[in-house]
Amino acid sequence: MADLSGDSSGLHRIVTDLTTAARPRYQFRPGPANSRLAAAVLREGRLRPTSDLLADLFTVRPDDGRTRFLPKERLLSDDEKALAVAAFERAVRAGDMTSGPQIEQFEAALAGHLGLPEVIATSSGTHALVIALLAVGVGAGDEVIIPANSFAATENAVLAINAVPVLADVRSDFTLDPADVATRITDRTAAILPVHLYGKLADMPALADLARGHGLALVEDACQAIGVTGVGAHSDAVALSLNPFKNVGLCGKAGAVVTRGAELAARCRVLAYHGFAVGRKNVKTADFGFNARIDNTLAVIGLDLLPLAHVNGLRRTWLAQRYREALAPLAEQGMLGLPEFTSDHGWHLFAIQVLDGPSRDGLRDWLAEHARVETDVFYPVLTHRQHTPLRNTAFADVRLPVTEQLHERVLHLPLHQHLTLAEQDRTMEGLYAAFRAHR
Ligand SMILES: Cc1ncc(COP(=O)(O)O)c(C=O)c1O
Predict the structure, then answer these.
(1) Which of 344, 345, 347, 340 is nearest to 417 (CA)?
(2) Strand (E) positions, 309-375?
(3) How far apart are CA 308 and CA 107, in angstroms?
(4) Nearest atom of ligand 1 to the alpha carbon of 243
(5) What is the pLDDT of residues 182-203, one digit of tens each?
(6) What's domain 78-307's architecture?
(7) Nearest residue by C-alpha to atom 8 in ligand 1
(8) Among 149, 241, 246, 349, residue to substitute to test ligand 1 (most atoms within 8 Å of Cβ)
(9) What are the φ and ψ backbone dihedral angles of 115, each rounded to 5 degrees?
(10) What is the mean pLDDT of the chain?
(11) Are 132 and 123 within 8 A, CB to CB?
């Protein structure tokens, strides 16, 4: 009997069993999100027949003949919207809008969900990064090694505390290359900050070895990787984002620092709220801190949305393997590079590489015009190429061959938890048509 949780490895297992028609007996670990997942996928302890399960998982909706990348009015399902509105109303009526009793409850729920002991819910993933870096002891002038292909928040968190971002190259899976990181370590390096870009876990065991060997802190930017197996297992601290565009998105800006260290967690709590001693408002114990705790209104919403996280993760994981399976012939012909279907991926974004045929931008335009499929590129400008003063100073001599090549080729296909199968079909058919048109 498989003892499963709905983290990325559990979801990978379920999808693999569905595609191979394996029907082992499953037992899910306790927890609200696992119970929801079990109710969605099991009948008498075994996986439901695939077609039956998918019919419930992917609702059919009126199709308007186009596939949008990430329609903001569909970030939440109608049921999720109703839950969120009711939760918000309860918090407002009770007057518990900024601080309030549900923050601790949400932190406990998120800790249980992640299987990690300490959660400090914050006002954003960006603030979670800043707080985590300060809490592990990064200070002014310290170097922090990061990738150059992330959202600006990664380097901004380093710069905000007057530390120095040092860019290292990535592997073909878009995450930090430990071998290249090793060459960037100096006697000023204080921390390594890998980003689990698009939801793919960086090589944490190798990065943890490096950090240990050089006495460095290791902080994970897991803002795109909530629910990915292995997050938090090797590092000092993790930053998560819970903004509405993420896999677990609340109805506003929110995030969390997650850690296995109780002392580190205590430092984060102090930093997240004006330097006040925990539980003693207006009594400072640190020189400074931020106004960076999550709002109670969002914690209340989070308590109601968190139980749906694993079912939403299953949708993403199914869509990812479906893209891979359908696009495999284009990959075999050398047209596209596809992400591996691995158990350490949360499928926040589905990134392909355009290798042959039309240019990446040509393909993007063709899909928009002829197939009515919207694609996107994350992120359009690499950190060292942003037009800021750093471009001519700290980043002037930066060369990142793999990052730069991936950046020219990468294209993101629509993948969100409420994408319909018809919308995905249109995307895949559009890709085949585009390559036929460019033969
Ligand atoms: C990789 C990465 N790091 C950091 C952040 C910052 O998170 P937030 O928007 O919650 O501040 C995001 C999300 O926007 C992100 O994708």
Answers:
(1) 347
(2) 336-337, 350-354
(3) 16
(4) 10
(5) 999 999 999 999 999 999 999 9
(6) 3-Layer(aba) Sandwich (3.40)
(7) 125
(8) 241
(9) 70, 30
(10) 97
(11) no
Which one, of 89, 147, 110, 127, lies nearest residue 32 by Cα?
110
Closest to 249 measured CA to CA, from 318, 182, 193, 316: 316
Tell me the C-alpha distance between 70 and 378, whole Å: 13
User: Which residues lie closer than 8 Å to 272 by C-beta, 6 or more apart?
Assistant: 120, 122, 127, 131, 257, 289, 290, 292, 293
Has residue 1 got a pLDDT over 80? no
Distance (Å, whole) CA 151 – CA 383: 8
Which tokens hold the place of 329? 């012939």
Torsions phi, psi of 167, nearest 5? -90, 135
C-alpha to C-alpha distance for 382 and 174, rounded to whole angstroms = 12
Count the Cβ atoms, other than its own, within 10 Å of residue 431.
Answer: 27
Q: Hey, what amino acid is at 39? A: A
Q: Quick check: ipTM above 0.85?
A: yes
Q: What one-letter code names the amino acid at 268?
A: C
Residue intervals of the chain classified under CATH 3.40.640.10 are 78-307
